[in-house]
Write a structure and sequence with these properties.
It contains 11 helices and 6 strands. With about 425 residues, the chain is of the alpha+beta class. It folds into 2 domains: about 210 residues, no CATH class; about 150 residues, Histidine kinase-like ATPase, C-terminal domain (Heat Shock Protein 90, 2-Layer Sandwich), CATH 3.30.565. It starts with 8 loop residues before the first helix and ends with a strand. InterPro entries: HATPase_C_sf, NatK-like_C.
């Protein structure tokens, strides 16, 4: 039996470091390039020292040491990248399995070419550089970069669990022969490399499925936006009718003012007309055109259905959000409120209040509507059949926001709290 030396621990440290680095290159970073580079150098040094020191530990301590190394990889990714804990965990599972494959492949080729040569000989180091460059360059160019530049992949606990289970299974199978035999042969290296390759391919397939799911969500969001645009077109036709009616009313008021002989009454009537005109001019000027459109459509709808709709909003606070997310959050919340108050028989109780403002470094979106019956909430704090509220919560979570719902004194209150991203300008809309 030809006994082969195991992979040098520093080779493994470099493989794990490079696997994390190519993820960091494609993810949103928390720090500047200089700070990230310093962090990467420090982490490589710490991982190299750790793996070198623990290279000769007993078998019972081998798995805890590997778990600690994986924990260091996770910490490195989570520290340097502006991602959620789930996204960092998913990338860590992929990076770990990729590092195992790269290190195994390189060392297998090394043993095939010159097994007696030192791992630190010039030709060995050259082979290390070439193999790692090819493997990580290929993965970065054709796999990770295309995948991770999609910022809304929606890594769920289920997706993370699948990736972790696959990485653990591939690692266990590929290293089982080493623990059973206590020595490394070329056949065992073949098995390890093939199993690690299979694990990388399986995670790549899962990656494709996540990309398809993300694309499907984007298409649904686009369809939602287009549907709302059609609704706005229908609403604009109705608004023209309302404007024509208001113009007719103004003509009648002007005729009445001309016929009025009392100068005081004429002045009062003119002030009333001017006040009404200012009210219409001030409508829906929040500073955000998407929000203006939504509020215009909803205010006209409320006029037609005897709903008292009041709103105070700084639209610039939502400038960082794309059109689809504003429609999803604001449009869905407004739709839920109007649908709720329309069921009330008394028009005096059909009340909706909306406020969008900055609060302690956050953006608060507050939607309130009057309700005669108390709404029961489930264990999640959501209405039992509140699919719209759940849609709002899913959209808010993309920005690390929170959604809370409660009933108070016959008012249903929906609060959405989002991290504030400052933008220029200010616009307050009042109605």
């Amino acid at each position: 039996m030809n006994i082969l030396p195991d992979i040098p621990r520093l080779y493994t440290a470099l493989a794990e470091w490079l696997a994390c680095v190519i993820c960091i290159l494609t993810l949103r970073r928390r720090f500047s390039k200089v700070e990230t580079t310093v962090c990467a150098v420090v982490w490589l040094s710490a991982l190299g020292v750790f793996l070198q020191v623990t290279g000769s530990v007993p078998l019972a301590w081998w798995i805890p040491c590997m778990a600690a190394a994986v924990g260091m990889m996770y910490s490195f990714l989570y520290l340097c990248c502006d991602v959620s804990a789930l996204e960092a965990g998913y990338c860590c599972a992929r990076a770990f399995l990729l590092a195992e494959f790269a290190a195994s492949l390189e060392w297998q080729i090394h043993c095939l070419l010159w097994r007696q040569s030192s791992a630190w000989a010039p030709r060995s180091l050259l082979l290390l550089a070439v193999i790692y460059a090819v493997v990580y360059g290929f993965i970065f160019r054709f796999d990770l970069k295309r995948f991770l530049r999609n910022r809304n992949l929606g890594i769920t606990r289920r997706a993370l669990g699948s990736a972790v289970v696959m990485a653990l299974a591939a690692f266990a199978v590929s290293n089982f022969s080493f623990t059973r035999e206590g020595s490394a042969t070329m056949d065992i290296f073949y098995i390890r490399t093939l199993v690690d390759l299979a694990g990388v391919l399986v995670l790549s397939i899962q990656q494709e499925q996540l990309m398809e799911a993300s694309l499907h969500r984007e298409l649904e969001a686009m369809d939602h936006v287009l549907h709302r645009q059609y609704e706005q077109y229908q609403q604009s036709k109705e608004s023209i009718r309302l404007i024509n009616r208001h113009c007719h009313d103004l003509k009648l008021q002007i005729a009445a003012i001309r016929a009025e002989q009392d100068p005081g009454k004429q002045a009062a009537a003119l002030d009333q007309m001017e006040s009404g005109i200012r009210m219409y001019e001030a409508q829906n000027k929040t500073g955000n055109p998407v929000l203006d459109t939504l509020l215009t459509a909803k205010s006209l709808y409320c006029q037609q259905h005897d709903i008292n709709f009041t709103c105070v909003a700084d639209g610039h606070l939502l400038d960082f959000m794309p059109t689809g997310d504003i429609c999803t959050i604001v449009g869905t919340a407004l739709d839920n409120a109007t649908e709720s108050v329309q069921t009330l028989a008394d028009p005096e109780k059909r009340l909706i209040r909306v406020a969008i403002y900055a609060q302690h470094g956050f953006v608060m979106l507050r939607f309130e509507n009057y309700c005669e019956t108390e709404v029961k909430l489930d264990a999640d704090g959501m209405p039992p059949h509140g699919y719209g509220v759940r849609t709002v919560r899913a959209a808010a979570q993309k920005y690390n926001g929170t959604v809370t719902v409660h009933c108070e004194d016959n008012w249903f209150i929906l609060r959405i709290l989002l991290p504030h991203r400052p933008t220029g300008g200010s616009g307050i809309q009042q109605k």
